[in-house]
Amino acid sequence: MLNLLRAPIGKAIAPLGRSLAQAGVSPDMITVAGTVGATVSALVCYPRGYFFAGTLLIWAFVMFDMVDGAVARAGGRGSRFGAVLDSSCDRIADAAVFGTLAWWFARHDQPSLLAAALLCLVLGSLTSYIKARAEGAGFTCNVGIAERTERLIIVLVGTGLTGWPFGVPYVQAGALWLLVAASAVTVVQRLATVWQQSRAQPA
User: Which of 60, 46, 180, 192 shows the shortest CA–CA distance to 124?
Assistant: First the structure.
């Protein structure tokens, strides 16, 4: 849904990508740094209930995901390994976000939100797995109402507004259950897309 924004954002950060590439920074270094930063931010902030501060830090490091692509394009250093590393690191950061939220809910006796966080974690991983497996089998699978960017926006906005100084009630619960529904729809959309392509292929 937000893929239309990638082109203008990519143009905006292209100068930064060129500067980093000229300084000898590799895309893989940025990928790893962003993942470590987002993971540590989630582990430190969310289990302590620092939802707003944690959200700001996590979002800042998640944005590295676009910077590494800009550096790769500027320096001509894109690689298949880099693509695999980037996708793997995305899963680590996502697991840190939902895992630490689940940890908070478990410690504060909120079973419904614990279930929502765990469902988001499982469905998000399944969404990414279906796409990777489909592409490995020769299909295309660029569909879904809740790709990674949308999932992060929903959970981070909902969580950030729950923390100080906002303290908006029910917004985190609403965001998580919305994300459960959107992720489930995305799983169905991707499976249906692959099924249609497989039916169109000659036996």
Answer: 180
Tokens of 178: 């919305």
Do the beta carbons of residue 53 and residue 45 sit within 8 Å?
yes
Provide the 3-class DSSP secondary structure of residue 143: coil
Q: Which pairs with CB-CB distance under 8 Å and at least 24 residues apart come from 104-109?
A: 104/46, 104/47, 104/49, 107/47
For residues 96 and 90, what is the distance between their CA atoms, to the nearest angstrom?
10
Half-sphere exposure (CA, 13 Å, Cβ side) for 75? 22
Residue with tokens 């590295």: 64
**5: pLDDT strictly greater than 60:** no
Contact 184, 146 (CB under 8 A): no
- First and final C-alpha spacing in the chain: 34
From the list 86, 90, 94, 109, the catalytic residue is: 90
48-73 per-residue burial string, b: 16 or more CB within 10 A, e: under 16 = eebbbbbbbbbbebbebbbbbbbbbb
Please state, in angstroms and rounded to a whole number, the distance separating the CA atoms of residues 111 and 173: 11
Rounded to whole angstroms, what are the CA distances from 160 to 30, 54, 123, 152, 168? Answer: 25, 8, 22, 11, 9
What does the pLDDT look like over 69-125, one tens digit per residue?
A: 788 777 777 788 988 999 999 999 999 999 999 999 999 999 999 999 999 999 999
Element holding 101 (H helix, E strand) = helix 80-107
Our answer to whether residue 65 is catalytic in this structure is no
Look up the pTM and report it.
0.90
